[in-house]
């Protein structure tokens, strides 16, 4: 079967694509970031700007010979205009262009025209357009999806490691998380499920549990020791401070996410179980024994690396502030003369080094992605250089009771960890 899959580069789309090709389907994937058509196995990647494809004619070139359309495109952290383009306008045009072809629309549990959040309203608008279109179609409404590589799953795993949790309203909101493998199995089953008119089905797990209980289940699955203590935080306060954490969490810690959390995320699991021919995987089965250690390590890195970067940035910025005058300049200049810098060059060396420290601190905060490996390497070389010079010229610093030199060692170890971590292919 030939299938058109949108959102193939996203978390859910990647897993669906792998399953479709494994089942022998030929898949056409309109994606951004592709300059020309590229074939990889049974998948063909074609260049497309999804948000701009808002007319049926925009989709017709990709629909020749297509037997089924799966729309897995979606964004969470975006303004209303972008949400409408990706969730409503482009899917409507695709559905219209694909008349006579089976469509599987991946929406969201709780999608409604009356929903409080733009995310759910824009999803619902496309759902309604598909319901009004005659023919074979499914509207899939997943609950919270768990799986390696998922942004929300990663955040929940990190929270599951914390010994103390500050949770909105104590984390008593209900959910029915579904594993990505079950979601994908359900999508594959829908391709061949006979239907004459649009059908809506909730993809949710078999167990209703509160967020605090879900985190405890993940805590146990990750092999963490001890118990978690929950401190309830008023929802109003959480929403007030949400903008602070929104950017760093990719929108997961936003007012909209809290609003959706507040309304709950549950549905009848039986239709999904009948589709699968079995109950969906329960949360206590999400993390198997064979991958518990890997998931734990990944969550630990997710928690500690951002903190490590902030601490390293603070070291450079504080060193710059101290060097620019907080510490008596005469004593700094005297130390430079002790390491062999002439009196004429000492001020230039002092303030030049302070400027470099300031720059390194700012870059540590500002740079993103694997391209910052050169920054970690520059810091490693600089610290090694400082350490070598002081070891040769002022060896007594190694005997200082506060250990100003020995503390370079954990700093170097942290920078090496960041350098190796950012060497991964994203």
Short description:
The chain has 15 helices and 14 strands. By secondary structure, it is an alpha/beta fold.
Protein described:
- With 426 residues, the protein is an alpha/beta fold.
- It folds into 2 domains: 2-147 and 175-207 and 255-284, Rossmann fold (3-Layer(aba) Sandwich); 301-421, no CATH class.
- The chain is 50% helix and 13% strand.
- It contains 15 helices and 14 strands.
- The chain has helices spanning 11-22, 56-59, 80-97, 118-132, 151-161, 180-192, 211-221, 235-246, 255-263, 270-276, 292-326, 329-338, 346-366, 373-393, 408-421; strands at 2-6, 26-31, 38-40, 43-47, 68-71, 102-106, 137-142, 145-146, 164-168, 174-175, 178-179, 199-203, 209-210, 229-233.
- Strand 1, helix 1 and strand 2 form a beta-alpha-beta unit.
- The longest helix is centred in the last third of the chain and has 35 residues, at 292-326.
- It is elongated, with a radius of gyration of 27 Å.
- The mean pLDDT is 90.
Jot down its keywords:
15 helices, 8-stranded mixed beta sheet, alpha/beta, elongated, two-stranded parallel sheet, 426 residues, 2 domains, Rossmann fold
Envelope shape:
elongated
Order of SSEs: EHEEEHEHEHEEHEEEHEEHEHHHHHHHH
Give the fraction of residues assigned to helices. Answer: 40-55%
Oligomer: single chain
> Which topology of the largest domain does CATH recognise?
Rossmann fold
What is the overall number of helices? 15
**Total strand segments:** 14
Integer average pLDDT: 90
Class derived from helix and strand content? alpha/beta
Give the C-alpha Rg: 27 Å
CATH architectural type of the largest domain: 3-Layer(aba) Sandwich
Largest sheet: 8 strands, mixed
User: Which strand-content bin applies to the residues?
Assistant: 5-15%
* CATH class call of the largest domain: Alpha Beta
> Largest sheet, order of strands side by side?
3-4-2-1-5-6-7-12
Q: CATH homologous superfamily name of the largest domain?
A: NAD(P)-binding Rossmann-like Domain
Low-confidence stretches: none
């Amino acid at each position: 079967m030939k299938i058109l899959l949108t959102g193939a580069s996203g978390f859910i789309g990647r897993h669906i694509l792998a399953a479709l090709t494994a089942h022998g389907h030929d898949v056409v994937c309109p994606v951004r970031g592709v300059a020309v058509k590229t074939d990889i196995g049974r998948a063909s990647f074609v260049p497309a700007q999804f948000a701009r494809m808002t007319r049926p004619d925009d989709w017709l070139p990709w629909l020749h010979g297509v037997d089924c359309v799966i729309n897995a495109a979606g964004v969470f952290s975006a303004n209303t205009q972008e949400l409408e383009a990706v969730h409503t306008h482009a899917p409507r045009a695709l559905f219209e262009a694909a008349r006579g072809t089976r469509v599987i629309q991946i929406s969201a549990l709780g999608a409604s025209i009356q929903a409080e959040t733009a995310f759910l309203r824009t999803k619902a608008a496309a759902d309604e357009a598909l319901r009004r279109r005659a023919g074979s179609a499914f509207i899939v409404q997943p609950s919270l999806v768990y799986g390696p590589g998922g942004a929300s799953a990663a955040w929940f795993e990190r929270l599951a490691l914390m010994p103390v949790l500050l949770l909105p309203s104590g984390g008593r909101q209900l959910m029915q998380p579904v594993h990505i493998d079950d979601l994908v199995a359900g999508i594959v089953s829908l391709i061949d499920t006979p239907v004459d008119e649009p059908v809506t089905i909730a993809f949710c797990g078999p167990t209703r549990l509160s967020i605090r209980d879900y985190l405890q289940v993940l805590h146990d699955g990750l092999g963490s020791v001890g118990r978690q203590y929950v401190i309830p935080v008023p929802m109003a306060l959480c929403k007030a401070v949400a903008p602070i954490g929104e950017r760093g969490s990719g929108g997961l810690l936003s007012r909209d996410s809290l609003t959706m959390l507040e309304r709950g995320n549950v549905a009848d699991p039986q239709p999904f179980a009948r589709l699968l021919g079995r109950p969906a995987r329960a949360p206590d089965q999400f993390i198997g024994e064979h991958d518990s250690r890997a998931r734990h390590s990944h969550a630990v890195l997710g928690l500690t690396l951002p903190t490590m970067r902030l601490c390293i940035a603070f070291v450079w910025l504080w060193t710059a502030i101290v060097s620019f005058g907080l510490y008596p300049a005469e004593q700094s200049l005297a130390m430079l003369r002790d390491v062999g810098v002439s009196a004429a060059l000492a001020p230039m060396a002092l303030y030049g080094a302070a400027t470099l420290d300031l720059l390194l601190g700012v870059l540590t905060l500002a740079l993103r992605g694997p391209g910052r490996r050169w920054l970690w390497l520059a810091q490693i070389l600089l610290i090694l250089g400082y350490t070598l010079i002081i070891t040769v010229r002022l060896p007594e610093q190694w005997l200082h009771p506060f250990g100003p030199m020995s503390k370079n060692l954990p700093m170097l170890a942290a920078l090496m960890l960041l350098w190796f971590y950012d060497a991964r292919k994203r």
